[in-house]
From TrEMBL:
NCBIfam families: PncC_domain. Gene3D superfamilies: CinA-like. InterPro entries: CinA-like_C, CinA_C. Residues 3-151 form the CinA C-terminal domain. This is Putative competence-damage inducible protein. It comes from the Bacteria. It holds the Pfam family CinA. Signal peptide: none annotated. It comes from Candidatus Bipolaricaulis anaerobius.
Length: 156
């Protein structure tokens, strides 16, 4: 399981992790904390489901949400940056998307998810388009976020 691999890598590096979640609603944090000993490297998470929470809790500028939306590469990058700063972590993962089954538009369909990683060496964001159920899309979003962290933490 990816969350176990993440734990091994973070422990070996002596690094810490925080998360900011929207469409996954805490699933990423749940998976990370299911690993015994996660308190050594996991600082915590912020569930910012509503755009106002993204602004208030994570410091996402209102202009980003107005110009690009709460489900966008720009917003998700800002969420990751905000979680890293507010929770004083080395790494921060952020996820925002449209899990479904409703809520999609032609421009932003169900299954559209952005994952971002803020790290000491930079910030990365990926766009994904999943085609599963609501639960499947949420799980896939967490998998994508954990894979992004592993790639960057291992220097791949």
């Amino acid at each position: 399981m990816l969350e176990i691999e993440v734990g091994h890598v973070l422990r070996a590096q002596g690094r810490t992790l925080a998360v900011a979640e929207s469409c996954t609603g805490g699933l990423l944090g749940q998976r990370i904390t299911a690993v015994p000993g996660a308190s050594v490297y996991f600082r915590g998470g912020i569930i910012a489901y509503h755009n106002e929470a993204k602004t208030r809790l994570l410091g996402v500028p209102r202009e980003i949400i107005a110009d690009h939306g709460g489900v966008s590469a720009e917003c998700t990058q800002a969420m990751a940056r905000g979680a890293r700063e507010r929770l004083s972590a080395d790494y921060a993962l952020a996820i925002s998307g449209i899990a479904g089954p409703g809520g999609g538009t032609p421009d932003k369909p169900v299954g559209l998810v952005y994952v971002a990683l803020a790290a000491p060496t930079g910030i990365w964001v990926e766009e994904h388009r999943f085609r599963g159920s609501r639960d499947g899309n949420r799980w896939s979003a967490c998998e994508a976020a954990l894979e992004l962290l592993l790639r960057q933490a291992r220097g791949a």
